[in-house]
Amino acid sequence: MRVISWCVPLVPVWVVLAGATIAQALLLPIPSRAQATRREPLDVARSFASRYPETASMSYVPALSWVGSLRLADLTGDDRWREKPRRDLRPFLTGEQNAIREPYQLFALAGHVSSFELGRLGNEDAAALAREVARLMVPQEADEVVRFATGWAEDMYMVTSLLARVAGTSEGEEYAGIVGRLLTLYVDILQRPDGIFIHAPDSPFAWGRGNGFAALGMSEALTWLPEDWAERSIVLEAYRRQMRALVARQSDDGSWRQLVDDPASYRELTVTAMTVVAMARGVRLGWLDPEPYLPVIDRGWQAVLVRTDEDGTVRDACTSTGAGPTREYYLERPAVNGADDRAGGLVLLAALEVELLLRSPSSGGRD
User: Fold this and answer.
1) What is the pLDDT of residues 95-104, one digit of tens each?
2) Helices marked H in 77-174 — which ranges?
3) 22-359 has which CATH code?
4) Is the whole-model pTM more than 0.85?
């Protein structure tokens, strides 16, 4: 291996090349496969952690990099990777910046997974903030599974990334149940019989990053919740069903596509990075057998590498995308080529998972 209560989130649009079309993006030069394979996962992780996030807002997007940087510090024993998350998060902890904004939206509240992770390092203010946000998500109406839900595949990650972590704390007993009810409901309404997820009930399209959110959400629950978690067997089977479906839909260059079931759709970076994260963690933690997944993960990681540069810039990363009414809506979404906080954070997480897999017995380990 070299309630549901429906609302529309106001997701920010990140940096996109002015006027760039998908066709233009696909013509940009990318490094060769030979160049890509010379980059080690930890080298990629360090370069992306050094750069991202470029914008410190309380949202899931910068939190991807903050959490990744803290994991990089744990993995390497180098405390300097904790400096940027601590610095970036300080204004939210001191009140200089609003840590919990109204109107409440899950994509913003999910940013507090970084508060939880900082709290694990002994920062009591961060730990208290994470618990406050978790309580805010608890349903208050009989028809709610979780507050502020959109019904989109994104919710599977936005809710689970924080609540599955808090579920393991002394104040977290009810959160495992919320996570279980949300994931099993979304599996029922969004997962097709073939294992692929649609974006939303009224947007029945297999959007790449939507599948990534579903995969990461289930992976977070399986990682953080105990073996006797009531919904584990249902979620594990849904996760495995999706992984099998994604293996069958991997492109010839190792990537996954903007619409994962459309061979004419462009090869997209974020779904590729997210799938690598979910598969690599699954093999490492024993949810998936190493074969046939190890070669799939390797090809996926190479596809990530050829869409990234050593300076942290990226290519072929779908911009911010709400649930859309037509297939053409997804096919015509602009591609980010350059610096991008969301894609950068996801690449960082993929690099860390590949490194952890390479160190594990599942891949034979490193010498």
Assistant:
1) 999 999 999 9
2) 83-94, 106-109, 113-119, 124-137, 155-166
3) 1.50.10.10
4) yes
